[in-house]
Each structure stands twice: as C-alpha cells, then as structure tokens.
Amino acid sequence: MGGKRIAVVTGANKGIGFGIMKELCAKFDGIVYLTARDEGRGLAAVEELKKLGLTARFHQLDIDNADSISKFTEYIKNTYGGLDVLVNNAAIAYKRESTVPLGEQAEHTIRVNFFDTLALCRSLFPLLRPHARVSTVTSSSGHLLRINGNEPHASALKEKLASPSLTEEELCDLMNQYVEKAKEGTWKEAGWPYKPYEVSKVGVSALTRIQQRAFDADPREDLVVNCAHPGDVATDMTSNRGPLTIEEGAVVPSYLALLPPNIKEPKGAYLWYDMRVIDWVKGPIP
Ligand SMILES: NC(=O)c1ccc[n+]([C@@H]2O[C@H](COP(=O)([O-])OP(=O)(O)OC[C@H]3O[C@@H](n4cnc5c(N)ncnc54)[C@H](OP(=O)(O)O)[C@@H]3O)[C@@H](O)[C@H]2O)c1
C-alpha cells in the first residue's frame, strides 16, 4: 500500500476520455486507471491501449450509481491508500433531434453531468494526497455567459453563480431549480437557457471554483482543481462532427491533470482548448 502514484479517468473507454488515457499512460509517473461503466467496453479499451504499447488498469465505475462509486472508492483506498489525479470526463448529452421531453432531459442531464460528478468528487476527495490534481471536462457550453434567459432573472442567476461565496449546497439548489423550471416549461422566464447540457456544464464550471476554495483551506498541501473546454471534438457525443481529434481534445484536460507541484496558477480556473485561461465571469467567450 502507498508509494505508487495513482491517476483515474472517468468515462475513459472512448472519445476524449480515451484520448486522455493515451496522454496519461505516456506521461504520468504512476498507475493510470481507465474506468468505464461497462466492463466489456472498458477492458476492450485497455486492450486498445496495449496495442499502442501503453499500460492501463481497469476498474468499473458508473458515476450514476452510488454503489459503484462507493465500491471504487473503497478499492482505491484499500489498495493504494490515496489518489493523485482525478479526471472528471464522463458526461452525457441528448441529441438536438431528441424527442424526449425537456423536463426529462433536464433531470437526467443535470443528474449525471452535475450531481454524479459532484458525488464522485465528494467520495474521492478525502483520498487526495498532497499535490493532487483534479481536471474536470466542462465545455464552451459551460461558460457563465450561457445563462441568457429573460432579464432581470438571468443577471440575478449569473450573480449568484459567480459569487465568490457560493456554496456547494446553494449551487445544488440552483441546479434543482432549473430542473423544476424545465419541467414546468418556465425555464426562460426564470432566466435559464434552453439546453440542459449548458446548465449542467455551467454547474461543473461553478463547482470547480467552489472546490478550489475548499482546497485552498485544506490542510493537505497544494491541491488544485481546474476545468476546461476540450474544443469541438469528433466523438459519439457530437455525432462525429467537430474539427478536433480525440487526441487534440485531450490536450488541455491532460495538461491540467499533470500540472507540476506547487504551481501558482491555473487554480480553480476555466481553460480553453488552446490552453488560454478564460474569464468565466466576464467573458468574452472566444
Ligand atoms: N466532443 C466534444 O466536442 C465536446 C465538447 C465539449 C465538451 N465535451 C465533454 O467532453 C467529455 C467527453 O465527451 P466525448 O465527446 O468524448 O463523449 P462520448 O464519446 O460520448 O464519451 C462519453 C464517455 O462518458 C461515459 N459515460 C457516460 N455516462 C457515464 C456514467 N454514468 N458513468 C461513467 N461513464 C459514463 C461514456 O461511457 P459509455 O461508452 O458507456 O457510454 C463514454 O465513455 C464530456 O464531459 C463532454 O461533455 C465534449
């Protein structure tokens, strides 16, 4: 137990997560866990890496399943005693042409992308060792200025979300309020944008800022979390539209996962796929 440095990537069996695996397997000094909700798809991805000369270990992890989160956490704790890198990559998005009612899409998308990511962080953060790095994959859709429903409510929401004293509980309340408004069909009047995916990613971007504040007050030394827009990447999520390859999309999330010890910045920041730190509150969105 102990000794080895450990990195974990969620939703790593395909897409950008698989691209991040390639980067970390090549560059991380330690053991890299490819996690996936489906064991067959995860093990097949580990085999793919092996063909490229890269070594990863597999563990099942469905972030939408509390039992799976707790089994994985226990496994890491009992096997290694700690964790050094967490990449929150797993997420879902409904297709534009989906006929699933908005309220249902909102509930599901906010649950997986926001609440499940938060649940995994809450479970794994106690295991983080000094100098740990957390890299959360957000989106251009996760910029605060995406909150663009009716005024003055949109401005009031933005002010709350941008507040340097926003708590996790308050952020959870806001996410739940959006789901309610989406179900009622009153999301726009309440200031929210139409797309659940946008709200979920604004949520994880806001969460990153809150988490860094907690890290700054943590007795463990030098804990850092950032989030990044990986660019428009051709994956199943985008129906293979998008100019970037998974390797290109993996660049900034991997960079954030591998930030060296004792860096001054970025911390609690929102990065663009070209590595620029973007002002999440004022914009502009590039
Ligand atoms: N592609 C883009 O242009 C783009 C742009 C901005 C942000 N992003 C973000 O980049 C990240 C990766 O997206 P992608 O484009 O690579 O999408 P993708 O190809 O659809 O891959 C998503 C991954 O997440 C996994 N996943 C979904 N639900 C999960 C759950 N409950 N537990 C564990 N894993 C789960 C999927 O597993 P299965 O194979 O089992 O479904 C898959 O491995 C996401 O956070 C996405 O929002 C993508």
Task: Characterise the protein shown here.
With 286 residues, the protein is α/β, with parallel strands linked by helices. It has one domain: NAD(P)-binding Rossmann-like Domain (Rossmann fold, 3-Layer(aba) Sandwich). An eight-stranded mixed sheet has the order 3-2-1-4-5-6-7-8, with helices on both faces. The mean pLDDT is 97. Helix 4 links the parallel strand 4 and strand 5. Helix 1 packs across helix 9 and helix 6 runs antiparallel to helix 7. Bound molecules: NADP nicotinamide-adenine-dinucleotide phosphate (NAP).
Topology:
Blueprint: E1 6-9, H1 15-27, E2 31-36, H2 39-51, E3 57-60, H3 66-80, E4 83-88, H4 102-124, E5 128-137, H5 153-162, H6 168-184, H7 196-216, E6 224-228, H8 246-249, H9 251-257, E7 270-271, E8 277-278
Parallel strand pairs: 1-2, 1-4, 2-3, 4-5, 5-6, 6-7
Antiparallel strand pairs: 7-8
Bound molecules: NADP nicotinamide-adenine-dinucleotide phosphate.
Q: Keywords for this structure?
A:
286 residues; alpha/beta; Rossmann fold; 43% helix; binds NADP nicotinamide-adenine-dinucleotide phosphate
Terminal-residue CA separation: 45 Å
Which consecutive residue ranges, at least 5 long each, have pLDDT under 50?
Answer: none
Quaternary organisation of the protein chains: single chain
- Helix content bin: 40-55%
Number of separate domains = 1
Characterize the overall form: globular
Task: Figure out the total of helices.
Answer: 9
Strand order of the largest sheet: 3-2-1-4-5-6-7-8
> What value does the Rg take, in angstroms?
18 Å
**CATH architecture verdict:** 3-Layer(aba) Sandwich
Tell me the total number of β-strands: 8
Structural class: alpha/beta
Instruction: Using the coordinates shown, work out and report the CATH topology.
Output: Rossmann fold
What's the CATH H-level homologous superfamily? NAD(P)-binding Rossmann-like Domain
Tell me what portion of residues adopts beta-strand conformation.
Answer: 5-15%
| Order of helix and strand elements from N to C terminus | EHEHEHEHEHHHEHHEE
List each distinct ligand once.
NADP nicotinamide-adenine-dinucleotide phosphate
Main β-sheet description: 8 strands, mixed
**Average pLDDT rating:** 97
* CATH class assignment: Alpha Beta
